[in-house]
Prior knowledge:
Blueprint: E1 4-7, E2 10-12, E3 18-24, E4 33-39, E5 46-52, E6 58-59, E7 67-71, E8 75-80, E9 89-97, E10 104-107, E11 111-115
Parallel strand pairs: 2-11
Antiparallel strand pairs: 1-3, 3-8, 4-5, 4-9, 5-6, 7-8, 9-10, 9-11
Amino acid sequence: QVQLVESGGGLVQPGGSLRLSCAASRSIFSLNAMGWYRQAPGKQRELVAGLTGGGPTYYADSVKGRFTISKDNTTMYLQMNSLTPEDTALYYCNARYCPPYGCSNYWGQGTQVTVSS
Length: 117
């Protein structure tokens, strides 16, 4: 079992910055993959940025050069700069954990990001 708790969302003006955090109930380094997803009203959930153990970092084209994903032992972060109204969405943290008995995906409750003047 992995519990994930997001924080850091809020209302920000276009061009502003926010940093999202995702606190995990076990060491980040024990997880096989982690990522940030977002879902805007009327749209499908999309992967924004992802980390895999030893693999390349993934960024959606729409956020490359503006968003940075990082982690420490217990928390994953998403630094978001140069925000635009198109970044408005509910942002979710996801983790994939693969103990010997099989893999499972876990989700946080989401944190709202609203970019508006």
